[in-house]
């Protein structure tokens, strides 16, 4: 089957089969990506020590900030490409590919240079202490040095999925995970490079995967491929990419701000090991979040294509299926958090104090997971069809509008416990807001679909 036929299937093939076809590779890829981060943490915790885990947790805001810029381009470009393929505008889709390359280069290099210049004060602001800053600095120096390759790797993977090549995107991610595990073991356990070894493993594995991605896009037989004339930045394309990418950018920036505030509050009301416990709970939750992100990535081209083709019944169907699957996944995460927290915490450290703090952090941080999947799918859906303002609002409602005030108020009353319980409380409230928003729009889409069918019937008569 050629690439154009594969793209056309987004509007004709049964929605359930399409979601499996697109989501399964993305889920495998995202699960692999979560293992990627977990393996780094396991090697660092077991091979370097408990305070290295806390130092790694300090770098989370950095990683979120880097992801924010990457998502602004990658998600924006992939969504724009999906809509253009749905409209059969293949020339514009190719130009989006070229502009994605240039934007990733510009943003990736600029981000690295600025952050490396101000690295120490930034890490202090993120909550690093005299004990944890050496670990955080060693890790981020290497990561920032290879940041432009990471940006390009994630951007190309997003375009592969949008261009009807979810399997290629999956294979690229799986390759980076396997290579990262191998290099982690070599650099940390054999060469004893410490936390820097984990950073080198991450960058080198992504560079290797990027080389293969670029080779795929160099094939002239592909529907989307590199060619002359597509690299000049075009105002309308850049505007649309950034316009759609603003939502995931805002989401990741908010996550960055929230993690900074959480780290600061944990250090203020607790200590460095509480930051490490939060890092452990985040890693466990991240596995299931990445599962749902895989479902979202599978849903995105289907919803975007059918929205562009005005096949609203198919668009609504895929959203409902995605919500059901996401809820099942997050409920599974909740069950593991409630009944197996010791084994999860022990995976990362041998330190008994950190294990105990990790158990508590896992149970509380994942307490509201059964309702979080729905909120994630709904937010991603509005982003997929270009409803940027709604997507941004739903992103902000969970992180800025709810979580930050709770993080400021609850610790004043309940101390350290107030920091922990502010997280599930904001999750529940944000999910309720998203559900009401989705119900309102589903009603609107149903009426729009009925009017379209009625109009077609009148035309036939």
UniProtKB/TrEMBL annotation:
InterPro entries: MATE_fam, MATE_MepA-like, MATE_MepA_subfamily, MdtK-like. The chain crosses the membrane at residues 20-39, 51-75, 96-119, 139-159, 171-191, 197-217, 237-263, 275-296, 317-342, 354-378, 390-414, 420-442. The keyword Cell membrane applies. It is found in: Cell membrane. Pfam families: MatE. It comes from the Bacteria. It is a multi-pass membrane protein. The keyword Membrane applies. Keywords: Antibiotic resistance, Cell membrane, Membrane, Transmembrane, Transmembrane helix, Transport. Belongs to the multi antimicrobial extrusion (MATE) (TC 2.A.66.1) family. MepA subfamily. This is Multidrug export protein MepA. It comes from Prevotella herbatica.
């Amino acid at each position: 089957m050629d690439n154009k036929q594969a793209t056309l299937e987004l509007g004709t093939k049964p929605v359930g089969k399409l979601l499996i076809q697109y989501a399964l590779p993305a889920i495998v890829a995202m699960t692999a990506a979560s293992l990627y981060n977990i393996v780094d943490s396991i090697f660092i915790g077991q091979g370097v020590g408990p305070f290295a885990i806390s130092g790694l947790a300090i770098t989370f805001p950095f990683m979120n900030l880097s992801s924010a810029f990457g998502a602004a381009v990658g998600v924006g470009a992939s969504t724009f490409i999906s809509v253009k393929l749905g409209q059969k505008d293949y020339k514009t889709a190719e130009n989006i590919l070229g502009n994605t390359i240039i934007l990733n280069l510009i943003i990736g290099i600029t981000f690295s240079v600025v952050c490396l210049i101000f690295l120490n004060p930034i890490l202090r602001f993120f909550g690093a202490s005299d004990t944890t800053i050496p670990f955080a600095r060693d890790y981020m120096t290497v990561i920032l040095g290879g940041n432009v390759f990471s940006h390009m790797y994630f951007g190309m993977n997003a375009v592969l999925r949008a261009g009807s090549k979810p399997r290629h995107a999956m294979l690229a991610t799986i390759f980076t995970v396997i290579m990262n595990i191998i290099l982690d073991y070599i650099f940390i356990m054999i060469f004893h490079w410490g936390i820097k070894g984990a950073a080198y493993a991450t960058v080198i594995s992504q560079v290797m995967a990027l080389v293969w991605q670029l080779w795929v896009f160099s094939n002239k037989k592909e529907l989307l491929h590199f060619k002359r004339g597509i690299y000049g930045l075009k105002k309308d394309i850049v505007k649309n990419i950034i316009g759609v990418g603003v939502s995931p950018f805002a989401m990741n920036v908010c996550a960055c701000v929230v993690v900074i505030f959480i780290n600061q509050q944990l250090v203020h009301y607790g200590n460095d090991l509480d930051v490490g416990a939060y890092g452990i709970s985040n890693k466990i939750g991240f596995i299931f979040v990445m599962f749902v992100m895989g479902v979202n990535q599978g849903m995105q081209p289907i919803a975007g294509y059918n929205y562009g083709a005005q096949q609203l019944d198919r668009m609504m169907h895929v959203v409902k299926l995605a919500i059901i699957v996401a809820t099942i996944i997050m409920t599974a995460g909740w069950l593991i958090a409630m009944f197996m927290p010791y084994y999860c915490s022990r995976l990362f450290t041998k330190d008994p104090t950190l294990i105990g703090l990790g158990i508590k952090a896992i149970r509380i941080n994942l307490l509201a997971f059964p309702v979080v999947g729905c909120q994630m799918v709904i937010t991603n859906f509005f982003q997929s069809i270009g409803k940027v303002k709604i997507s941004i609002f739903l992103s902000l409602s969970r992180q800025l509008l709810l979580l930050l005030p709770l993080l400021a108020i609850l610790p004043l009353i309940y101390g350290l416990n107030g920091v922990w319980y502010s997280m599930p409380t904001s999750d529940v409230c944000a999910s309720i807001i998203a559900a009401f928003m989705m119900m309102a729009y589903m009603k609107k889409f149903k009426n729009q679909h009925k009017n379209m069918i009625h109009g077609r019937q009148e035309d036939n008569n």
